[in-house]
Amino acid sequence: MIPPGSRYVALGSSFAAGPGIDPIVHKPAGRSGHNYAHLVAAELGLDHIDVTYSGATTAHLLDTRQDDAPPQLEAVGPDTALVTITAGGNDLEYVGTFLRGSALNTLAKPATLLGRRVANRIRARVSYLKDDAAYQAAADSLASVVENVRERSPKARILLVDYLTLVGPSTRPRLDVPLNEEQLPSVAMTADGLATAFAKAAAATGADLIAASAASREHAIGSPEPWTTGFTLRPPGILGGFVPYHPNAAGMRAVADLIVNHLRG
Length: 265
Known about the structure:
This protein has helices at residues 14-17, 36-44, 58-62, 94-111, 116-123, 132-152, 184-205, 212-215, 249-264, and strands at residues 7-12, 24-26, 31-32, 47-50, 80-86, 157-161, 208-210. The chain is α/β, with parallel strands linked by helices and 265 residues long.
């Protein structure tokens, strides 16, 4: 168990930052005051530093600036007792590919008025599948993040927190998301590859694994109680718009509960 008052540093991309979940406490990062880091810190009474940033790759955690923000690892110091890491999805263009495919398919519908050939050209612009080398590179990068955290804070408890499931057993092509029967399984395969990368990194480094992906399979898009948002072209806050294909407040609460229960257990 991490004692109250201990220093907790949260590293990661948008699935940790929580864009679209009020209140947003850092607009450029899309960082929510109700993301899982804030919820865990409040539950356990931790002194936390949240440097999660939407759009971050593992490089932005390791050694690359993002906008005006330094590499996220710089927030970790010798006194850090707990570190959570949720990154790697942007290395694989996981959500970005899902978004582009959904947007192009949605835009292709009115384009059919100009002819099926035009619509098919719009749809053909997205490649969904990654090769094994891309998943292994993500696993290696996550392992490198863990190793660098250990160098900075040898006594820190390190948790690799993987991504909430977007596409699950209840997600219906064309109805719940604007992808067809051939496209949707490819997105699920990318998610599985990302989850495997987290598991490999945890096994290689001895970091703890919080398998949010497995815990959320029955809460995917199209389920009775989804933990992530679906798709929209409307900008957040305008005419019911929201940040698509990202954790919602219930999903962030669920991930926080997984982390707290793991630490207490």
